[in-house]
Structures are given as structure tokens and as C-alpha cells.
Write a structure and sequence with these properties.
By secondary structure, the chain is of the alpha/beta class. The chain has 2 domains: 3-36 and 83-123 and 169-250, Rossmann fold (3-Layer(aba) Sandwich), CATH 3.40.50.1220; 41-80 and 131-162, SIR2/SIRT2 'Small Domain', CATH 3.30.1600.10. It is 33% helix and 18% strand. The protein contains 9 helices and 11 strands. The protein has a 6-stranded parallel sheet with strand order 5-4-1-9-10-11, sandwiched between helices. A 3-stranded antiparallel sheet has the order 7-6-8, covered by helices on one side. Helix 5 runs parallel beside helix 9 (235-250) and helix 7 packs parallel to helix 8. The mean pLDDT is 93.
């Protein structure tokens, strides 16, 4: 892909360099390029069960050991994964333009590992734990937990510090994301199915605020019909080209 294939997005490069704000929403598709399962479609199974069945408070209450086995498998996958060119390009873009907010539905921490700083993790992160008793948040160990399910120093069970189906988002997270979307001049939707609420409403919020909305996704999604532009390609193909264009313009 070359700069000309950015389509209408290329015309907005001068606006971004002039200080108009950019907001980006990412989903599982960008991390799939680092080898992580998306848990939708054919890779949505774990040991014969649908992964979504293990990501609820009810599942944890019924069988915390099984839920933690699933998350330990995910953490093992993450230890083998590295940020891909799409993650790195977003960090490069943040280094060039003055106003950028990155909102992610992913819980893998790869955006921060790539160097992105202004990140809103809507669904938390599996790199941290939260005590079900005293509520303390702590980083999880780099290695597997010695005991499954793990326990806090207070004796209560630890859980992954993520948002499960049926739970509220972290306090203030969606409000901050919605504010960034409403103030943005350009809103990029990268590698997400655009069906999981409330994140799926951010593109609409951005459009109502006057932003140009562009989708980057090799797959067709419900967002396509209302977007200002759709690039049917992977994040690692498109975002480095955009980063190159911004870096050239800033030089």
C-alpha cells in the first residue's frame, strides 16, 4: 500500500499536523495480527467451549478455577505476542501530532507495549488483577500463577482486571472516550466489528461532532454504510502508511 491508497484520509493529514484532534478506536482485529485469538468466528473456542461463556461474573462464581485456566492460557499467548506494525504505527502517529486519543476494546496491553501513551482501555487489561474482597488492583506476574485460582494477601480470590459481559466499564472510561470522540476532527475505527456496545456508539458520537469517520478493516462491518471512507485492508498495511505521511509532513 502506498500513500495514494489512503484515499480521503490522506487529505486530512494537514489538518492533523495543524493540531486538529485525532481519536482512534481499536478492536480485536489489530491484535489478531500479533497472533492473538479474536474469540469471534472460528477462533472463538477454548477446550470445546465458547470463550464468551467464560467471560461473565456468573462463570467466575460457578467455577473460578476454570475461568482462571482460560485466562492463564490467554496470558501465555500474550507472553509470546509482540506489538505488530499497526500498534507501532499508532505510537508513531502520537509522537507526530499534538492531539491524539487511543481508545481500545482490547485487554492485551499491546498498545502500551508499542509506546502509545494516551490510551483508554475500555475493557481493562489481563495484565492486572483485582481482589474480589478488598478490591486492590495489582500487576499480575510475568510467569504463570503458582496457584489457580490465585488469591490476594487478604485471602480473597483474585480475578482478571477486565470487564466481563454484564459488567459496567471502569469509572470514567467511556465518558473520556466519548469526549475524545466528540472533539475529534478525524475518527479512525480499526479492526473492530462495531457491534459491541457501548464502544460501537463512539463513531456515531464522533460523526455528530463533525468528525470524518474512517474504517480500517479487511472485513465488512455495520459501520461501513455510515463512514466517510472504508479501507478494506489490515491495520498493519494502512497505519504505517498514514504514519509515514504524517512524519513526512512534519519534517
Amino acid at each position: 500500500m502506498n500513500g495514494g491508497e489512503l484515499g480521503g484520509l490522506a487529505a486530512l493529514v494537514p489538518d492533523l499536523l495543524a493540531g486538529r484532534p485525532l481519536a482512534v478506536l481499536t478492536g480485536a482485529g489489530i491484535s489478531a495480527e500479533s497472533g492473538l485469538p479474536t474469540f469471534r468466528g472460528p477462533d472463538g473456542m477454548w477446550e470445546g467451549r465458547r470463550a464468551v461463556e467464560l467471560t461473565t461474573p456468573e462463570a467466575f462464581a460457578a467455577n473460578p478455577k476454570e475461568v482462571w485456566r482460560f485466562y492463564e492460557w490467554r496470558r501465555a499467548k500474550l507472553r509470546e505476542a509482540r506489538p505488530n506494525a499497526g500498534h507501532v504505527a499508532l505510537a508513531r502517529i502520537e509522537n507526530v501530532i499534538s492531539r491524539m486519543t487511543l481508545v481500545t476494546q482490547n485487554v492485551d496491553g499491546l498498545h502500551r507495549a508499542a509506546g502509545s501513551r494516551n490510551v483508554i482501555e475500555l475493557h481493562g487489561t489481563i495484565l492486572k488483577t483485582r481482589c474480589t474482597g478488598c478490591g486492590v488492583n495489582e500487576p499480575g506476574p510475568d510467569a504463570p500463577f503458582p496457584e489457580i485460582p490465585p488469591r490476594c494477601a487478604c485471602g480473597s480470590l483474585l480475578r482478571p482486571d477486565v470487564v466481563w459481559f454484564g459488567e459496567m466499564l471502569p469509572e470514567g472510561a467511556f465518558e473520556a472516550a466519548a469526549e475524545a470522540a466528540s472533539e475529534s476532527a478525524v475518527f479512525l475505527v480499526v479492526g473492530t466489528s462495531s457491534v459491541v456496545a457501548p464502544a460501537s456508539s463512539l463513531a456515531t458520537i464522533a460523526a455528530r461532532g463533525g468528525a470524518k469517520v474512517f474504517e480500517i478493516n479487511p472485513m465488512l462491518t455495520p459501520l461501513a454504510s455510515g463512514a466517510d471512507g472504508c479501507l478494506r485492508a489490515s491495520a498493519s498495511a494502512v497505519l504505517p502508511v498514514l504514519a509515514d505521511a504524517l512524519e513526512r509532513g512534519a519534517a
